[in-house]
Every structure is written in structure tokens, then in C-alpha cells.
Amino acid sequence: MDSAQLTAFTQTLAQGLLTGGLYALIGTGLSLIFGVMKVINFAHGDFLAIGMFITLALFRAFHLDPYLSLLVAAPVGFALGYAIQRFVLARLGDRLSEASMLATLGLGLIISNTLLLTFGAQPQNINVPYAIQTVQLGGVQLSIPLIVAGLGTLASIGGLNYLLYRTELGRAIRATAQNPLGAELQGVKTTNIQAIVFGLGVAFAAIAGVLLMPLLYAFPTVGENYTTKAFIVTVLGGLGNLPGAVVGGLVLGGIESLGAFYISNNYRDAYGLVAFLLVLLLKPEGLFGKTVKRV
Amino acid sequence: MTASVTPARPRALTFGNVWISLALIAVMAVYPLLFGKSMNFGVSTLIFAGLAMSWNLLGGWAGQTSLGHAALLGIGAYTMTILATPERVPAFLGGPLAPWWGALIGMALAALLALVWGSLTFRLRGSYFTLSTIAVALVIRLVAINSDWTGGSEGLFMPELPRFLGLDLFDRQAEYWLAFAFVILTLIITHAVRRSRLGYALQAVREDEDGARALGIDPTRMKVIAFVISAVLTALGGSLYAIYLQAFEPHTLLELPISVQIALMAIIGGRGSIQGPAIGAILLAVFGEVFRTVFANANLLIYGVLILAVTLYAPDGITGLFTRGGRKLGTAR
Predict the structure, then answer these.
(1) Does A295 touch chain B (CB under 8 A)?
(2) Is A126 inside a domain boundary?
(3) Suppose A27 and one of A72, A125, A245, B279 were both cysteines; which one would form an S-S bond, judging by CB atoms 3.0 to 4.6 Å apart?
(4) Domain of A87?
(5) Which of B299, B308, B331 sits opposite A107 (nearest CB)?
């Protein structure tokens, strides 16, 4: 491999890993929700779309810098998720696994079609001067929004880690995930914890949406693609396995980027799907899991 | 779960169900006389009614929620169209095939796919199967978009077709009666499955897989059989749909929303009952038509609202609200 080929490889891999960081962020939210409540959130990508459109609307209305909309999108996402768990999913009772899938599927359709009625089907983007600027890092050129996205992902996942393992709330969340009844007996208000967890998961999706907005066009059904990505990431890492979701995201980003570069760009979305099917069939507990968590 | 006192026993066969089917058939038979002007609506509604009932053989009776049926629909549509087009038909066949042979080959291919797909994925329980259906369907869609023999992302046009039993296949009236026959076929098969060993085994597997296994039922085998029947009928519906559309592309025919639509029609209508899926399809089509001017292409909003309402307030679907049988088939868990 000569130096030009090596540079191309590093460039491709670096871009893939940064995109993979965003996948990790999306997947972590999904995996967190699954880990605590055994709910597969089919509306996950649509929450990401909400983040994108909040950014778009604030930019159009106030010319707000896209990254500042994080201050709006993350709390809105949290509140939305909290309310959905509290008022919809919590009422499904013991039919949870199947019914929650259908309920979130319905919520996703409601979100994407409401966005369609509000913003129209036309793909829209925002023009910020730094969106097309790049930085040279050790021979690799990377666009600024992609680097910000990578940093945002690191910060969010670091923050979640701190919350889960260093705070009293995190202890309550982990207890609820391990044994809801036991946690309840110890005085943890599990209905509240579950709503917080769903809120966190949705907030993560909304944050990912904000971080993606300078990179992509927003359109109402953009979420569909990302729901699939989130499934792939979480299954690669093992459903409910948070560090697994991070690695799964990076792996997916890397596979897509390298596959698109070396095999065929047309099949970019297929590499992840094939990896996903192989893991589902051969190692359903995920690439790194020891315990089988069959739903 | 709450303890149920008596185990759910399959109800004795009553005429209640058959009467509903006959009423449904009567409505479908009268439609062209009353609404002869809106045959487009009639044909597409009937095709989707049949597709929803085909879906339900797997989704309702076997309890396996597939969100990948668009792929099977696509196999039926693509196989028939490719084999009927002189420029596309593989050389060794020596010329275009009549659409009915194409449809049969499409059904065979769908059966084969379902056999392999089901044997591999039914080892996984619950949501894993659903996730795998999404992935398989998306891979098939990507192949259709990126291959030459499928017409790529531009899709296919229906060529001239020979007459079928003296019927012009591009006449909406003829298409309506073909779709009508398709719905009746799915109805008959559903009725037959319900009273067969397979039907009881499927219900047993759905209610308690381990319990069924203990009774000597092979759950994977039963689910695969249900999937194959469902796939064959869906492919047949796909061939009809292709004739109805006359031109189709992967972005409309093979997308996830089509799979979701078929599944939600069945679930909203009532997956535990025989006619529920068809009734769901008809209701949703009527809703879509009524609100078309209000929502334009956001018509899936209605699906979202209804499925949310159904999961919250009517877990057995709309028909489940009216029939005790539907309720019993749907909830015991």
C-alpha cells in the first residue's frame, strides 16, 4: 500500500468513524430504552427528525446558530419522551413488548406526517459558513460539522456514563433495569425512572438530529433511515448493552464508509444490514455480549 | 399477567364467522354496481384487503409481526412483469411468458424465500423476527434499485399482456373481479387454516410456545408453513398490484411504509379474527379517501393515530370490539 492509498484509507476510515459516532449516539438512546424497559422504540429516528426540524425552524426564525439549538432540542426531546412514556407506554401494562412496538410505530407515523404537514416534503438545509470548511488533521481532511458531531457524541456519552455510574439517579436507573420490582421495594419510583429513561433516549436522538443538521438535508421521513441504523447499531452491540452500542456505532460507520469506498457506493446502506442479519442469526446476543437476552 | 381461570379453548366452529365473510363478499360484489365510476379505488382497496389477510396468516394466526411483506409483494410484481416483457425475459425461456405463468413463478420464488428466511429467523423470538424482516426487505429493495434486470431506480413498465380467460387485463372492471377473486381466495384459505390442525397448532404456538412444544408441536415448522402460505398469497397480490399500477418503481413498491401499511391494516382491523384485516383495509382506504384533500400525502397520519388508539384501547383491533371470539383469540397470553 503506497502513501496515497494509505491516506485514502485513513481518510475514509476517519470519516466513517465520525459518522459512526453519531450512529453510536442514536443507538445508545435506543439501547438505553431497551435496557431499562425492554421497549423497542420504532419512532427513534423520528425523534431525530424532530431535532433536525427544531434546528431548522430556529435558524429560519431567529438565525440561531444550529449548535445553540441543542439548548432547545435536548430539553424538548426529554419532555416529549417523558410524556410519551408516562401517558402512552406506561398504560400498555403487561402487553408491553408487542404493544409498545406498535405504539411507537404509530407515534413515529404521527410525527413524520405532522412534520410533513408543517414543513412540506421538500428536503431543506441550512447554510452556515463553517458547514463546508474542513480541517487538516495529520494528512486527513475532515469537515468541521463532522468533527463537532464527534465531540458532541463524546460529550453526550460521557455525560450519560457519569449520570449512570456516579449519581443517585443513575443507581436508581440501573436498579430499575436489573429488577423493577426489587427497585420498587427499595423505594425507587420506577414509573418516574422509566419516564426519565425514555426522555433521555429521545433527548439523545434529538441531539443527534441537531448535530446532523449542518451535514444533511432535513425531510419529514428522514427518521426512517436512522431508525434502521439505530436497530443495526444496537443489535451489533447487543440489545441493552450501552458500551456495545458505542462500539456498534463505530463499527457500522466504519463498515459503511469502507464498503462505499472500496466496493460500491450504491450499496452503502446494505453493508450494515447484512452485518446486522449475520449477527442476528449467528450471535443474537450481539458481538460482545455473554448473556443471551432473547426478547 | 392476570391469572385466567379457564384456559383459552378454541371456540366451536359457528356460522357467525362465515356469515361475516359472506356479508363482506356481498358488499364487494355490489360495489361495482353502485360506484362504477370509482373503480381505481375499488381495485386497490380489494388488493390491499387480500394482502392484509395474507399478512394475517403469519401476523395474526402465528403471531409473528412482519414488517417486510413489501419484499414479497415486490417479488410477485417484479417476477411477473420481467417475465412478460420481451426485452427483459431471460433468453433461455425463448420469449415472454403469459402473466399467469409469471405470477405462478413469482409465488414459487416467494415461497422459496419465505422457506429459507423463516427457517433461519424463526429461531429468534418476538421482536428479533420483526427486526430481521425490516433488514431483509431493505436489502431486497437495494438490490432492486441497483440492478439492471429490475429496471433500477426507474422501475418497470407493464408490457402488452395477452387476454386472461377472455378478459382485458388493463380494464378496471376485469381487474376488479380478479382482485375480488384474490380476496375470496385469501378468505377461503384463512377459513380453512382456522379449522385445520395447522390453525390450532399456530394458535397454540402463539399463546405459549414452550407449552406447544411440550405437546409435540414443532413451533419453527408451523411458523415456517404459515410464512410460506402468507408469502405465496402476498406474491399473487403483488402480481395483481403490478397490473393495476402498470408502472412501478422500487421507491414506491418496496419501501418500508408499504410493509407497515399492510401490517397496520391487519392489526387495526383485528388480527385475531378472520375478516378483521380485510375490514381494516377497507376502513383505512375509505378514511384515506375521505381525508385525502385534508392531508394530501400525509395520509399515513391516520394509520398512526388509529394504531395508537388500537394499542391503547382495543388490543384486538376494531373487530375485536364486536366479537367475543376475536377478543379471546387476541389477548390470552
Answers:
(1) yes
(2) no
(3) A245
(4) 3-120+132-282
(5) B308
